[in-house]
Design brief:
Order of helices and strands: HH
Shape: rod-shaped
Structural class: mainly alpha
Distance between the termini: 139 Å
Number of helices: 2
Strand content: under 5%
Largest sheet: none
Number of strands: 0
Length: about 90
């Protein structure tokens, strides 16, 4: 029966701590990479994200011209009428 020589306990503990430290750093780096990738995907796919420049919400110019013409023809946009002059009555 041969007995293999064992490493001293302090060296084994130090090696285990180095492996644990390396594993923690690897998990932290993977977590940061995953978080960064997730934030990038969210920013690219969020519903409010505009891929084109924004335009003001407005009616087409042809429609506005037709409405203006119809309103003028119907007298809706006539000049304001002046109030009648003050009148006095005798009591």
């Amino acid at each position: 029966m041969s007995i293999e020589p064992q490493e001293p306990a302090p060296q084994r503990i130090a090696a285990a701590r180095r492996r644990a430290h390396t594993a923690k750093l690897g998990l932290a780096a993977a977590g940061l990479a995953f978080f960064g990738l997730g934030m990038t995907l969210v920013k690219a796919n969020v519903a409010g994200h505009s891929r084109r420049p924004l335009r003001p919400l407005d009616a087409p110019s042809r429609f506005r011209a037709i409405v203006r013409q119809d309103a003028l023809a119907g007298g809706l946009l006539a000049p304001a009428q002046a109030d009648p002059g003050a009148t006095t009555s005798q009591s």
